[in-house]
Design brief:
Shape: globular
Order of helices and strands: EEEEEEEEEEEEEEEEEEEEEE
CATH superfamily of the largest domain: Jelly Rolls
Cofactor: Fe cation
InterPro entries: Pirin, Pirin_N_dom, Quercetinase_C, RmlC-like_jellyroll, RmlC_Cupin_sf
Largest sheet: 7 strands, mixed
CATH topology of the largest domain: Jelly Rolls
Strand content: over 45%
Protein name: Pirin family protein
Radius of gyration: 17 Å
Domain Quercetin 2,3-dioxygenase C-terminal cupin: 148-233
GO molecular function: metal ion binding
């Protein structure tokens, strides 16, 4: 088993007033040659957008872009006709493919919106752009990981153009679950959304990240009440 630890306080930081962001991997003005990606996981941004503010219309291509709101409401508009609002309990994906433009705005004028912005390199390039969004409220489980992203379009979760699987787990103190790698050669990047956990003996706290590869499974145990995001991805493009 190989591992890499990224403590919360070591992440890149960018505060633009309307946007306060922490970057697990190199992004924009934050550049760390030792933290460019984890396999095909290229971006993991922890964003806070002030009331009524947002990202203006901008382009993307050949990237799988996943948004997971943690608090508040985020309005999304794109060039393929989608106008929607995502909120805590939703997961959104946009396969940019041959090219798409979109904007994201805090829907509310009286409170912040907090969300994860995640970019994954695609399995196939230049596909037709595609959008998907689900509510995970009905599939959420306690003390067990449940799937929210899958490469199989008929499977549970949003459909991604990559051999990647994302799971979320909500754990009460003392409970644990084993996660088994879905595809040989993949690794898992664990991101602690809330609380404290141990992953195969390594202690991690809120917003810490841990990459694990060359293993068939990992064990996650909650030292305190915790919420954990697991992102299984190919380790090479």
């Amino acid at each position: 088993m190989n591992t890499v630890i990224h403590k919360a306080e070591t992440r890149g930081k960018a505060n633009h007033g309307w946007l306060n962001s922490h970057h697990t991997f190199s992004f924009a003005n934050y550049h760390n040659p030792e933290r460019m990606n984890f396999g095909v996981l290229r971006v993991l941004n922890d964003d806070i957008v002030q009331a009524g503010m947002g990202f203006g219309t901008h382009p993307h291509d050949n990237m799988e872009i996943i948004s997971i709101p943690l608090e508040g409401d985020l309005e999304h508009k794109d060039s393929i006709g989608n106008v929607t609002v995502i909120k805590e309990g939703d997961v959104q994906i946009m396969s940019a493919g041959t090219g798409v433009t979109h904007s994201e705005k805090n829907k509310n004028n009286d409170k912040e919106v907090k969300f994860l912005q995640i970019w994954v390199f695609p399995k196939e390039k230049n596909v037709t752009p595609r959008y998907d969004q689900i509510s995970i409220r009905e599939i959420a489980k306690e003390n067990k990981f449940y799937q929210v992203v899958s490469p199989n379009k008929d499977d549970q979760g949003v459909w991604i153009n990559q051999d990647a699987w994302f799971h979320i787990g909500n754990f009460t103190k003392g409970n644990s679950d084993e996660y088994k790698i879905q595809k040989e050669g993949n690794g898992v990047y664990a991101f602690i959304l809330e609380g404290e956990v141990e992953i195969d003996g390594e202690k991690l706290s809120k917003r810490d990240g841990m990459g694990i590869w060359n293993t068939k499974s990992i064990n996650v145990k909650a030292s305190e009440n915790a919420r954990v995001l697991l992102m299984e991805v190919p380790m090479s493009r």
